[in-house]
Specification:
The complex is a heterodimer of chains A (222) and B (236). Chain A has 222 residues and is an all-alpha fold. Helix content of chain A is 79%, strand content 0%. Chain B is mostly helical and 236 residues long. Classes of the chains: A mainly alpha (222), B mainly alpha (236). Chains A and B meet through helix 2, helix 3, helix 5, helix 7 and helix 9 of A and helix 2, helix 3, helix 5, helix 6 and helix 8 of B.
């Protein structure tokens, strides 16, 4: 992997991390998108797509409502795609790495929010006086902190992916069941999430109709 | 009203400094600044301060409160009325946005993209996901701002009479159907080497996650499964 690819992945991971909450919130942070683009950067779009699709199952169950705490799958997916691009058992290890980094990413969101809160508290007098410059400064500071957070997450995930790619063969082989196990768990997570939000009759009817159609189409797909 | 385009652009970073102290309030204030620029210099600081007070709704509908608040200030509404407007809008905007976007449109498009991957759409599925979402998210952001600017303190009535409640009624069931349809397709496509025999433990896992959401967390379950898979992989 060349310097250009590393730079592109770091830039993409930063953009993806920002997109989750700070902006522009255009679903760039969805694992399917983050992984696919990272795969394209690495010349392995199929690997990025497969990893992203598996992680998308987990992301389907996330409801980022209000001040909820949730994992940050974007930078984690970008970093883990580097490992997934090796194929074979590396894909399962990449999934595990991405899930772990998503948890770490979720924690860093809490630190970011706390840091933003400290900036607000420090400028309370100016904000209460309607100081436009203070508002702009805090907004810029928040965006810069989030960019740094996303960059650090992506860099960490890339370093871990690089190290995991050098696992001894016996250890790497131990991950042979990781991919199917984690994809199956992702399917369970997505199914549980879908049932949980299907609170009213219309949504439950949609769920049943969709399952029937999906099973029928799946039979054709086989 | 001047500054609408600048406010619209800023709405895409409304949560740029989200915090537990004022939640989206800081961002709402920052987005409102271009709209309040025409106010008398003596009235502007207090209006900006009110706009930046504690607020939390839905980021994609933040334009409603930005526009309505600015319109109320420009119309000379009393400070207490502007504050009541913000308080009254927070809950409904959050609920409507969460239902339409987070539990409706986003899972609908995500599931459609997964189904497209299963059918071999490849990288186009990811591109389609972003484009389809942007085709709704961007116009809705503009619509929310215009709705607020047009109706001011009466924006609540306008919101209730808008397309949004009908949109929620349609997109919710569609999202449920799409997710339910996509999952069997992912299995059928053979993604990740998932085998049909995994349906039983998978359904058991889904039941645990659904029945005991506080105890069985998705990622904790995934890590537990990963440990079992690693042990089995090491032994095999």
């Amino acid at each position: 992997m060349g310097v250009g690819e590393v730079g592109a992945l770091l830039a993409w991971g930063t953009a993806v991390g920002l997109d989750l909450a700070s902006g522009p919130q255009l679903l760039l942070a969805r694992p399917l998108v983050a992984g696919t683009v990272a795969g394209l950067v690495l010349g392995a779009p199929a690997s990025g797509l497969a990893l992203g699709a598996a992680l998308e199952l987990y992301a389907l169950a996330v409801l980022p409502v209000g001040a909820a705490r949730y994992p940050d799958y974007g930078p984690a997916t970008v970093g883990a795609t580097l490992l997934a691009a090796h194929g074979g058992t590396a894909v399962g290890w990449a999934l595990l790495l991405a899930l772990g980094m998503a948890v770490v990413g979720g924690r860093t969101l809490q630190w970011l929010r706390a840091a933003n809160g400290r900036a607000i508290a420090a400028a309370r007098a100016a904000l209460d006086a309607g100081d436009v410059a203070a508002l702009a400064r805090i907004q810029r500071g928040g965006l810069a902190r989030d960019a740094l957070r996303a960059l650090a997450l992506t860099a960490t995930a890339l370093v871990l992916a690089g190290l995991a790619a050098r696992l001894p063969p016996a250890v790497a082989r131990a991950g042979r069941f990781l991919e199917p196990a984690l994809v199956a768990t992702g399917l369970a997570v997505a199914a549980a999430g879908a049932v949980r939000v299907a609170g009213d009759r219309r949504r439950r009817a949609g769920l049943v109709l969709g399952a029937v159609l999906g099973l029928a189409a799946g039979a054709l797909l086989r | 009203m001047t500054g609408a385009w600048a406010a619209f652009a800023r709405l895409f970073a409304v949560q740029g400094a989200w915090n537990h102290e004022r939640m989206q309030g800081q961002g709402i204030g920052w987005c409102s600044v271009p709209l309040l620029a025409g106010l008398d210099a003596s009235a502007r600081p207090a209006a900006v301060a009110r706009a930046a007070a504690l607020f939390n709704g839905h980021p994609f509908l933040a334009g409603v409160v930005v526009g309505a608040g600015a319109r109320a200030e420009v119309d000379g509404a009393p400070a207490a009325k502007v504050e009541r407007l913000r308080t009254a809008l927070a809950g409904p905007l959050g609920a409507l946005g969460d239902q339409f976007f987070w539990s409706g449109l986003v899972p609908l498009l995500s599931a459609a993209a997964l189904a497209a991957v299963a059918f071999g759409a490849g990288t186009w599925a990811a591109a389609g996901l972003v484009v389809a979402f942007a085709l709704v998210r961007v116009p809705v952001t503009w619509w929310g701002l215009r709705l607020g600017l047009g109706h001011g303190v009466r924006v609540g009535t306008a919101l209730a009479a808008s397309w949004l409640p009908l949109g929620i009624a349609l997109v919710g069931p569609a999202a449920s159907a799409a997710v339910a349809a996509a999952l069997p397709l992912v299995v059928a496509s053979g993604a990740g080497g998932v085998a049909p025999w995994m349906a039983a433990p998978g359904l058991a896992g889904a039941w645990l996650l659904w029945k005991f959401p506080a105890r069985v967390r998705p990622l904790r379950l995934a890590f537990a499964v990963a440990i079992v898979a690693l042990v089995l992989g090491g032994l095999a």
